[in-house]
TrEMBL record:
GO cellular component: membrane
Transmembrane intervals: 12-34, 46-69, 90-120, 140-158, 170-192, 212-236, 248-274, 294-317, 338-358, 384-406, 426-453
Protein name according to UniProt: Transporter
Signal peptide boundaries: none
SUPFAM superfamilies: SNF-like
Highest taxon of the lineage: Bacteria
Length: 466
């Protein structure tokens, strides 16, 4: 099937830096600053960090190259890309899944983002907040969630270079400055050294199958692979762009933020004698207590939740762009109508996620059971179904498509357009492209399959998702 990359009316990245900032922003989200530290805490600190970095290099980066190459080769959104790349209708499944996953995750992810906006305000004016009471108060959460969604829509309205790229060039440096400043303050607290040691000093005896699987799951959840986001972002790239360099930068920036996230949290938690493995409540319940006990805590606290909000925004921008890109490409709807249409629909669909935090609400009691997996509450059901299980399945489908359902050499040629060394035989007569094909065909499907089995508790306790 002939492939081309017509991009008229779709927009294109204005620069490589702008694309890297936008794609890294998509990858850098609450998963880096919220999920990474508590998963690290639950899996033994430094040993987990070591395994995670290996997983990013060996699994996350090859999968990232894969999605970027599919996007740029076809010049389309995930549905259009799969339609264009293959006549086999089976491969439409991952394309459709991409658009559905991005929309559904957006509907509850924006609720968490709304919480961060509320906490910026309460930290600034130094009002103690009971997290459980706060999230059970729709009169606060609904407007905060909707406000956040409107901000996301306004960025998308600006288009690829005028909206997403400009916003990312502003937001990402702000995020880096905030995270460095807060981490710097955290590591200088009296008693912080114990937390630094726990976080960065690997105890390799703690590495077991569970730790490896947790690190694998975190690596591709936080790298934004398995969503179709990078297919969409890749479709806006010119042929001259270097996918290898860009992919490595995205992986490095994503891991950098995740690692600094731990340096923000663990030294402060240990300095104040708190537990490092408190789970997701660490961010909204325990950290405000930490900030209260630090000189200038209200400013630091507000800065931290501003950081969370920025990280969430760079991710919701990409989540909204996927269904918007689909409507522009396939349905020929204007960007303005597509952005407002999808955005307002997402606001409406976010309401069950908001209400699921209220104990007496029907949405807090709804239950889903699959084998040994049981999830209660709309929020947790959506997160496990779309934010965890579906993402893992989609990662597997994209790898199988590129490795077995499509001519892999075409993707190698695509990656090599801006990076000729990708096809050069560098070591033992083997090129990086050949190594990449081996990983996409064999290593990635095997590893993703293991992570998928782990989600269902085949190797012990089911992975919770997150």
């Amino acid at each position: 099937m002939a492939l081309n990359t017509e991009t008229e009316g779709r927009g294109q990245w204005g620069s490589s830096l702008g694309f890297i900032m936008a794609a890294a922003g998509s990858a850098v989200g609450l998963g880096n600053i919220w999920r990474f530290p508590y998963i690290t805490g639950e899996n033994g600190g430094g040993a987990f960090v070591f395994v995670y970095i290996l997983c990013v290099l060996l699994i996350g980066i090859p999968l990232l190259f894969n999605e970027l190459a599919i996007g740029r080769l076809t010049g389309k959104n995930p549905i259009g890309a799969m339609k264009k790349a293959s006549d086999n209708k089976f491969w439409m499944i991952p394309g459709i899944m991409s658009v559905v996953i991005c929309f559904m995750v957006l509907t509850y992810y924006s609720v968490i983002a709304g919480w961060t906006v509320g906490y910026i305000i309460t930290e600034l004016i130094n009002i103690p907040v009971d997290f459980d009471v706060f999230i059970e108060t729709p009169k606060y959460i609904v407007p905060l969630t909707f406000l956040f969604m409107v901000i996301t829509i306004l960025v998308i309205l600006g288009g690829v270079s005028g909206g997403i790229e400009k916003a990312s060039k502003l937001l990402m440096p702000v995020l880096f400055i905030l995270i460095i400043l807060i981490a710097g303050r955290s590591v200088t607290l009296p008693g912080a050294s114990e937390g630094i040691n726990y976080y960065l000093n690997p105890d390799f005896s703690k590495i077991n199958g569970g730790v490896i699987l947790a690190a694998l799951g975190q690596a591709f959840f936080s790298m934004s692979v398995g969503w179709g986001l990078m297919v969409t972002y890749g479709s806006y790239l010119p042929k001259s762009s270097n996918l290898v360099t860009s992919g490595l930068w995205i992986g490095a920036l994503d891991s950098f933020v995740a690692l600094l996230g731990g340096l923000m949290i663990f030294p402060a938690v240990f300095a104040l004698g708190l537990k490092p493995d408190e789970g997701p409540s660490l961010v909204f319940k325990i950290l405000p207590q930490v900030f209260d006990q630090i000189p200038g805590g209200s400013i630091i606290g507000a800065s931290f939740f501003l950081l969370l909000m920025v990280a969430a925004l760079t991710s919701t921008i990409s989540m909204l762009e996927v269904p918007v890109g689909y409507l522009i490409d396939e349905k020929k709807i204007s960007r303005k109508k597509a952005a407002w249409g999808v955005g307002i629909t997402a606001m409406v669909v976010s309401i069950p996620a908001i209400l699921s935090s209220i104990e007496e609400s029907v949405f807090s009691k709804v239950t889903m059971k699959i084998g040994s997996i049981q999830k209660t509450g709309w929020f947790d059901i959506m997160d496990w179904t779309f934010g965890t299980l579906s993402v893992t399945v989609l990662c597997l489908l994209f790898a199988l498509f590129s490795g077995w359902g499509f001519k892999s050499s075409k993707l190698v040629d695509e990656i090599a357009l801006g990076a000729p060394t990708f096809k050069k035989k560098i070591l033992f007569g083997i090129s990086p492209g050949q190594v990449w094909i081996f990983f996409i065909r064999f290593v990635c499907p095997l590893v993703i399959g293991l992570v998928l089995l782990n989600l269902f508790g085949v190797f012990g306790e089911p992975e919770a998702g997150g």
